[in-house]
Amino acid sequence: MIDFPQPEIRGRVSVVLPCHNRAAFLPDALAAIQGQTFKEWELILVDDGSTDGTDELVRERTKGIRQRVEIVWQENAGAYAARAKGLLHAAGEFIAFYDSDDIWMSHHLLDCVAALQTHLEVDWVYGPDRAVDASTGQVLVANRFVEGGEPKVFRRLETRASAGLRIIVDANLVTCAIEHGLYSGLQSSVIRRRIFEQVRFRGDLRNGEDRFFAVRAAKAGCTFGYFDNIHVIYRVHSDHSSLANAKTDTESARIRLQIIEGYEDLLATESLDEAERRALCRRLAKEYFWHLGYGVYWRAGEFDLAMEAFRAGLHFDRTNPKMWKTFVLSHVRSLIAKLTGAGSNGPLSTGLDSDPENRE
Q: How many helices and strands in the chain, by DSSP H and E?
């Protein structure tokens, strides 16, 4: 627990928990919420069209507790639509979102609320998660703020430190959020209610809205602060709706296209300065060219679709030499594939399979 110099921690947190057929994970989730050292919370569980007895399980597991628990039902519409609906029922000064298959550390709410009450200028507080295999408990990623022993790019932003909290004060906050992300996942955050009066979720997106919401919040003047100690255990399993668990190339493409749609929406709707616009164009180029074109279509042997995605990427970043090199090699090799019939035997290497731009 972070030791903030405050004699009394007040306020209430509205915990919004979207859930679709997660009865197997809910006992652990409810235990983690009830095990928080900060007790002034209410739970709004949004049942997103479950068919596994979620309603009965939640009522049984929360029977007799003093905190308010409300169950809201909706036809299946996805987690972000469920979060938006849950917000309509939230009464707390602070908002926290719980992902049903993850586990909060017991200090999560207390540390975040204490930080928000100590620093009235801060709107969004979060910490890193630790990725573990849900079936074995094996640690897959010890701290998602670190990659290959190096801190993620957002941790290079200028901060002001206070009792373990790093308050981001860098003028490049928005450009970093666009191009590299702040890793401020909703499940590891506590956010002032007022932010949701300025910024809304896009309920029609089922993937990637965390990152777009963070950009819009930053543009609206939201101040972020983060901890370095672990706040969430992120459990990896086969039923995740994330990109990493996409089971087919078609599903991977669908998720990638939704992420692209989210970034294009930012380009169309946000009032960006020149640096922010350039950062967003670079991000869209990366999404189209490396992630969709190369990472999905080219590897699946869908060469025509890959070339379309490559062209879309080059539209947003016309001077990227790595992209042009890959584009030319791919064009030649796709022609060879058509002439020889190699396309039916899987992907062709461009010689750039290990290119760092092909990673998240």
A: 11, 15
